[in-house]
């Protein structure tokens, strides 16, 4: 029969299910899709048609929420920055030094777990827009605030704490690039070394 499907043949793929979402929910949905793609895809290769298709909306509607591809990319990495700060927040019931140690461990673990994602966030996939670096700056500033508040550090030493976070980030990226069984130090030892470096820097008086 002409209208029947022969046995063994595959039916055509169903189109994406369109769901009516509020504007904030739609933006969150699109950013979530983008976050999953920007780790491995430079922005210049990012297909807005694919993102719209996965969300079940038109390309035009996507650009209603994000006027340009760069705006969309910035929304994605801004969400990533906020997620990093949430994931690395220490328990405020701990003592100041314990909060610093916990925040350091959480940051190292975050970088180890999502190393490629973190590198994409740091390097911005070559996007020539100052707002990209501002996102990473906000993560470092938020992390710096936590240490300054936890230890009651003098404001004049804030720059030292911020530089220390950059050092810790670099140590974590270098350490996590090595296969697990070949790393020269354990996670606990790396955290201890980073925390010791912070206290050594803060003890310097000039």
UniProtKB/TrEMBL annotation:
Coiled coil: none annotated. Residues 1-21 are annotated as: Disordered. Residues 24-84 form the HTH tetR-type domain. Keywords: DNA-binding. SUPFAM superfamilies: Homeodomain-like. The keyword DNA-binding applies. GO terms for molecular function: DNA-binding transcription factor activity; transcription cis-regulatory region binding. The keyword DNA-binding applies. This is Unannotated protein.
């Amino acid at each position: 029969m002409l209208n029947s499907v022969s046995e063994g043949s595959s039916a055509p793929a169903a189109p994406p299910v369109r769901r009516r979402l509020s504007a904030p929910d739609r933006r969150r949905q699109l950013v979530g899709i983008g976050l999953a793609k920007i780790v491995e895809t430079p922005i210049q290769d990012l297909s807005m048609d694919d993102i719209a298709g996965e969300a079940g909306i038109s390309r035009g509607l996507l650009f209603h929420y994000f006027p340009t591809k760069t705006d969309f990319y910035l929304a994605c990495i801004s969400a990533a920055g906020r997620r990093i700060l949430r994931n690395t927040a220490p328990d405020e019931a701990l003592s100041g030094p314990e909060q610093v140690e916990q925040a350091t461990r959480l940051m190292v673990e975050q970088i180890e777990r999502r190393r490629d994602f973190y590198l994409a966030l740091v390097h911005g996939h070559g996007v020539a827009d100052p707002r990209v670096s501002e996102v990473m700056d906000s993560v470092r500033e938020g992390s710096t605030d936590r240490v300054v508040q936890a230890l009651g550090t003098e404001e004049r030493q804030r720059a030292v704490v911020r530089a220390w976070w950059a050092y810790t980030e670099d140590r974590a990226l270098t350490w996590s690039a090595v296969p697990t069984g070949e790393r020269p130090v354990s996670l606990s030892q790396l955290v201890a070394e980073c925390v010791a470096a912070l206290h050594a820097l803060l003890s310097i008086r000039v």
